[in-house]
From TrEMBL:
Transmembrane segments: none annotated. SUPFAM superfamilies: FAD/NAD(P)-binding domain, Succinate dehydrogenase/fumarate reductase flavoprotein C-terminal domain, Succinate dehydrogenase/fumarate reductase flavoprotein, catalytic domain. The keyword RNA-binding does not apply. GO terms for molecular function: steroid dehydrogenase activity, acting on the CH-CH group of donors. Residues 10-438 form the FAD-dependent oxidoreductase 2 FAD-binding domain. This is Fumarate reductase/succinate dehydrogenase flavoprotein subunit. Residues 518-545 form a coiled coil. Its cofactor is FAD. It comes from Streptomyces sporangiiformans. The active site is at residue 330.
Length: 656
């Protein structure tokens, strides 16, 4: 039996971004002793990078806005595949979550009459994004951290210990969710019992025991070569849930943000916020044409301007004009840019032009878009107040994720497991609207923390026990890269040299980018699955040198398991869904099919040890199942015109 430190908590939150911190605050406030664990420095989560704002129907800039309109926009953006109950809760609760942030010390930009200012964003009918310049995520995280510190100060006063009820373990990675077994607890097996972790600096293993675990680890972008995501986004939470027995939902839906930097190569993929278009930026091809007018799909025809003149007038008079097509949902704009480049009308470095310089005076651009101004000035030597940016699609967000119960954020099928934030699936359907992530983090982070605390407090059968056998297995798995030198003793792999984790990662990113990217084809996805199978076998020999003290090669070798699992989910689900919808575009099935609206795709692990996949690589580790979606509640359907519903819903649904 291995000797690893163990600590007991009621709730463990994996991830310290917006979702994780909001969950931790709620769990602690509900009386649960709560631990937060994150693989980056505390305060350095991906949420910090969020730029444009947080969507909430507060109606501060246009009084016509309300939760029903926000709900409608979200469902339209997701092409009606959203878990409608999540979209409803999100639209209803987002304004309260924004107000709550202000009571905790956040300070959003103001309107002239002192209200929280709200800006336009793609797919939102009214100005809806509360913002702090283009650094909204930073303010959000700063405020949540401050709230955590204030709770710790309360605890110090009461117990003499800052960390008695709320403790942060930073720069520590979770590699396994542990579950109790019949032998360990005597109760029904399969409940969550804690997490297995390692400290990145010392390499030391430890276990946090807890009956409730909230996964809030964010996205998967680092499986793709061109991405706006940071190093943390290796799909850990998705993989942890799969390995614990929970299904992933609709993993084929990956959002390619239309505007990432394309030049210079070292910064390719870094995000150019949608606020640039929200504040009047126009997209042009190499012929100087504002091409988005050619790409308004039928389902959106009545809602977008027909001419440049009307689009321009909308900025001054939104009540009497329609919005410009630069503000279509992201999937539409990304596909349009892709098509322009493919048709030979791209910019010199393979993107298109995005120009805000003619819309506002230089000092207003610098004030409203300070990060963008500095980003282009410093990284590309481009002055966006005087010239156009070059931009192109970049892998940005995953709509698919852990399948959860809408109200409680409980992961399906694993008692004690919860999920919130980008790692959870369903809320955004096939395509997320900008700004709807930050609000999602707060709404469902809070709900996850609440229900995790209630679950822990209400355990009738006693606390689940951590099984030593599981801990030993997790430790052995984590140590395997150090013994890859020896390699397998028998079989086809015997005697082969160890693999370099960096090489494997690069090959994975190239595969996903080229074969399961923005436009997908059957033969390419089949080729991707073959390549993933090969990489999976090779990854079992991923070897590292040195020791466990801060060893990034070792960390990457461990992350590879997660990226490979998640990539297989994306590729298998994308191959299965023979239609185009939101963030999933099939060249061989270019239209959106009403029959597919009723179908979710669930990925489950068939081969938890990876042994079968190693001997029969093509078979893979993931099994797909189709599931019929729950019918949308009639009072929510009544928010739409029948003519609109006809475009999305299947015949029987309309009849019902
Ligand atoms: P994160 O904030 O990424 O937090 C994940 C946490 O999990 C981190 O603390 C990480 O260290 C931890 N973690 C991961 N794996 C492990 C592990 N194995 N063990 C322990 N800890 C782990 N959305 C909007 O709504 N509005 C915007 O304006 C906006 N702008 C954006 C700009 C950029 C450049 C990007 C990239 C995204 C933007 N988004 C925006 C999207 C939004 O920022 C993210 O979807 C959101 O922040 C995700 O939050 P989260 O809490 O789910 O995860």
């Amino acid at each position: 039996m291995s000797v690893v430190d163990r600590q007991e908590w009621d709730v463990v939150v994996v991830g310290a971004g917006g979702a994780g911190l909001r969950a931790a605050i709620e769990a602690r406030e509900r009386g649960a002793r709560t631990a937060v664990i994150c693989k980056s420095l505390f305060g350095k989560a991906h949420t910090v990078m969020a730029e444009g704002g947080i969507a909430a129907a507060m109606g501060n800039v246009n009084a016509g806005d309300n939760w029903q309109v926000h709900f409608r926009d979200t469902m339209r953006g997701g092409k009606f595949l959203n878990q409608w109950r999540m979209a409803e809760l999100h639209a209803q609760e987002a304004p309260d979550r924004v107000w709550e942030l202000e009571t905790w010390g956040a300070l959003f930009d103001r309107t002239k009459d002192g209200r929280i200012s709200q800006r336009n964003f793609g797919g939102h009918e009214y100005p809806r994004l509360a913002h702090v310049g283009d650094r909204t995520g930073l303010e959000l995280i700063r405020t949540l951290q401050q709230k955590i510190v204030s709770l710790q100060q309360e605890d110090k006063k009461e117990t003499g210990d800052y960390e008695s009820r709320l403790k942060v373990f930073q720069e520590c990675t979770v590699t396994r969710v542990l579950k109790d077994t019949a032998s360990a607890s005597g109760a029904a097996p399969g409940r969550v019992s804690g997490v297995f972790c390692y400290d990145r600096e010392s390499g030391r293993f430890f276990v946090l025991e807890a009956p409730s675990v909230v996964i809030a680890t964010g996205g998967i972008g680092k499986s793709f070569k061109v991405t706006s995501n940071s190093w943390e986004y290796t799909g850990d939470g998705h993989a942890l849930a799969l390995l614990a027995g929970a299904p992933l939902l609709n993993m084929e839906f990956v959002q390619f943000h239309p505007t990432g930097m394309v030049w210079p190569p070292s910064v390719k993929g870094i995000l150019v916020t949608e606020s640039v278009r929200g504040d009047g930026g126009v997209l042009q091809n190499s012929e100087g044409k504002r091409f988005m007018f050619d790409y308004i799909p039928d389902v959106f025809k009545e809602k977008y301007a027909e001419s440049e003149e009307e689009g321009d007038r909308w900025y001054e008079d939104p009540d009497n004009n329609r919005r410009p097509p630069e503000l279509l949902p992201r999937d539409e704009v990304a596909r349009a840019i892709n098509a322009e480049v493919k048709a030979g009308r791209g910019s010199p470095h393979g993107g298109v032009f995005l120009d805000v310089s003619n819309r506002m005076p230089a000092e207003v651009i610098r004030r409203r878009l300070p990060s963008m101004y500095h980003q282009f000035k410093e990284l590309a030597d481009v002055d966006i107040t005087a010239e156009a940016m070059e931009v192109g699609p970049t892998c940005h967000y995953v709509m698919g994720g852990i399948a959860v119960e809408s109200d409680t954020a409980a992961a399906r099928g694993v008692p004690g497991l919860f999920a919130a934030g980008e790692v959870a699936g369903g809320m955004h359907g096939s395509n997320r609207l900008g700004g709807n992530s930050l609000s999602d983090l707060l709404v469902f982070g809070r709900r996850a923390g609440l229900h995790a605390a209630q679950y822990a407090a209400g355990l009738a059968e006693g606390r689940p026990a951590v099984d030593d056998v599981e801990v030993d297995a997790a430790a052995a798995e984590a140590l395997r890269p150090f013994s890859a030198e020896e390699g397998p003793q028998a079989g086809a792999e015997a005697g082969r040299p160890p693999e370099n984790p960096y090489t494997l990662h690069q090959e994975l990113q190239q595969t996903m980018n080229d074969l399961v990217g923005i436009i997908r084809r059957e033969a390419e996805m089949e080729a991707a699955l073959q390549k993933l199978a090969e990489l999976r076998v090779r990854a079992r020999r991923a070897g590292v040198e040195g020791h466990r003290q801060f060893n990034p090669g070792w960390h990457l070798a461990l992350d590879l398991r997660n990226m490979l699992l998640v990539s297989e989910c994306v590729a298998r689900a994308a191959l299965e869904r023979t239609e185009s919808r939101g963030g999933h575009t099939r060249e061989d099935h270019p239209t959106m099919e009403r029959e597919w609206r009723r179908l979710n795709l669930l990925c489950r692990l068939t081969d938890p040890t990876g042994e079968l996949a190693a001997t029969d690589p093509v078979r893979g580790q993931i099994r797909l199942a189709r599931e019929t979606t729950e019918p949308i509640r009639p009072d929510l359907l009544a928010l739409f015109e029948k003519e609109e519903l006809v475009k999305y819903l299947a015949e029987e649904e309309l009849y019902e």
